[in-house]
Amino acid sequence: MIEPLPDVLIRPIVQAALAEDLGRAGDVTAQACIPADARLTADFVVRKPGTISGMACARLAFHELDPTAEFIEEVRDGDHVEAGAVLARVSGNARAVLSAERTALNLLGRLSGIATLTRAYVAAVEHTGARIVDTRKTTPGLRALEKYAVRCGGAVNHRFGLDDAILIKDNHVAACGSVAEAVRRAKAAAGHLMKVEVEVDRLDQLDEALPEKPDAIMLDNFSLDDLREAVRRASGKVVLEASGGVNLQTVAAIAETGVGVISVGALTHSVGVLDIGLDAA
């Protein structure tokens, strides 16, 4: 079972999305066509198979415009569904339902798209010991939701931001002068609960990093042969993360080299939405 995000984290995002859509005058179409006291019941129906994420976003979108709206969930975040499945039913003021429809579908569709793609990556490496993780390549303002969707798809989260782990990248190394010096400085500054990871793009940099004992080493755009060699040299003494050039066609072979973690930016930066519609009952 996926631990849901609290509404207090989701509500500001939903409110901002609704405000963007409603603009300066509100939903002029609904106001012109729908009587103020009309009621509407509609079903969320998924058009293609997928893994669901974002049900709370849909619920909150309707409750923002009609606090009395009834939202009945038929599935839970993390569930895999087939095409034609009814995800939820909403009943409430017709104007409010129609005005919130697009915001609800935008968020539910995008998050479910992330969860669906993530599930495919996780399935591709399930015969290995590797874990799929996300990156910080998220939509500005939606990181908490998108990383939650990754968890709904069965993967785990990398760091959430710049403040929760030290990740030394190539430009940090350039500024410090060497991989070893960068790791030494980071470990000297880090508190006892702060992890330190360093990115390397060659085997000689791996050799330089290993004696400094970082918590993890990111192997950036390594060939399969070099990944296997890196695993051999590390001998299980440090977490090895493969990054770069990862897609659904390559991820299994990368996992089979023996790396422990594979980071995939595409989970959030290149994903399509899961096709979901709202159909009047």
UniProtKB/TrEMBL annotation:
<dbReference type="GO" id="GO:0004514">
    <property type="term" value="F:nicotinate-nucleotide diphosphorylase (carboxylating) activity"/>
</dbReference>
<dbReference type="InterPro" id="IPR022412">
    <property type="entry name" value="Quinolinate_PRibosylTrfase_N"/>
</dbReference>
<dbReference type="Pfam" id="PF01729">
    <property type="entry name" value="QRPTase_C"/>
</dbReference>
<feature type="binding site">
    <location>
        <position position="102"/>
    </location>
    <ligand>
        <name>substrate</name>
    </ligand>
</feature>
<keyword id="KW-0328">Glycosyltransferase</keyword>
<feature type="binding site">
    <location>
        <position position="199"/>
    </location>
    <ligand>
        <name>substrate</name>
    </ligand>
</feature>
<comment type="similarity">
    <text>Belongs to the NadC/ModD family.</text>
</comment>
<comment type="subunit">
    <text>Hexamer formed by 3 homodimers.</text>
</comment>
<feature type="binding site">
    <location>
        <position position="159"/>
    </location>
    <ligand>
        <name>substrate</name>
    </ligand>
</feature>
<dbReference type="InterPro" id="IPR013785">
    <property type="entry name" value="Aldolase_TIM"/>
</dbReference>
<keyword id="KW-0808">Transferase</keyword>
<dbReference type="InterPro" id="IPR002638">
    <property type="entry name" value="Quinolinate_PRibosylTrfase_C"/>
</dbReference>
<feature type="binding site">
    <location>
        <begin position="135"/>
        <end position="137"/>
    </location>
    <ligand>
        <name>substrate</name>
    </ligand>
</feature>
<dbReference type="InterPro" id="IPR036068">
    <property type="entry name" value="Nicotinate_pribotase-like_C"/>
</dbReference>
<feature type="binding site">
    <location>
        <position position="220"/>
    </location>
    <ligand>
        <name>substrate</name>
    </ligand>
</feature>
<feature type="binding site">
    <location>
        <begin position="243"/>
        <end position="245"/>
    </location>
    <ligand>
        <name>substrate</name>
    </ligand>
</feature>
<comment type="function">
    <text>Involved in the catabolism of quinolinic acid (QA).</text>
</comment>
<dbReference type="InterPro" id="IPR027277">
    <property type="entry name" value="NadC/ModD"/>
</dbReference>
<comment type="pathway">
    <text>Cofactor biosynthesis; NAD(+) biosynthesis; nicotinate D-ribonucleotide from quinolinate: step 1/1.</text>
</comment>
<keyword id="KW-0662">Pyridine nucleotide biosynthesis</keyword>
<dbReference type="GO" id="GO:0005737">
    <property type="term" value="C:cytoplasm"/>
</dbReference>
<dbReference type="InterPro" id="IPR037128">
    <property type="entry name" value="Quinolinate_PRibosylTase_N_sf"/>
</dbReference>
<dbReference type="Pfam" id="PF02749">
    <property type="entry name" value="QRPTase_N"/>
</dbReference>
<dbReference type="GO" id="GO:0009435">
    <property type="term" value="P:NAD+ biosynthetic process"/>
</dbReference>
<feature type="binding site">
    <location>
        <position position="169"/>
    </location>
    <ligand>
        <name>substrate</name>
    </ligand>
</feature>
<feature type="domain" description="Quinolinate phosphoribosyl transferase N-terminal">
    <location>
        <begin position="27"/>
        <end position="112"/>
    </location>
</feature>
<dbReference type="InterPro" id="IPR004393">
    <property type="entry name" value="NadC"/>
</dbReference>
<feature type="domain" description="Quinolinate phosphoribosyl transferase C-terminal">
    <location>
        <begin position="114"/>
        <end position="279"/>
    </location>
</feature>
<dbReference type="GO" id="GO:0034213">
    <property type="term" value="P:quinolinate catabolic process"/>
</dbReference>
<feature type="binding site">
    <location>
        <begin position="264"/>
        <end position="266"/>
    </location>
    <ligand>
        <name>substrate</name>
    </ligand>
</feature>
<protein>
    <recommendedName>
        <fullName>Probable nicotinate-nucleotide pyrophosphorylase [carboxylating]</fullName>
        <ecNumber>2.4.2.19</ecNumber>
    </recommendedName>
</protein>
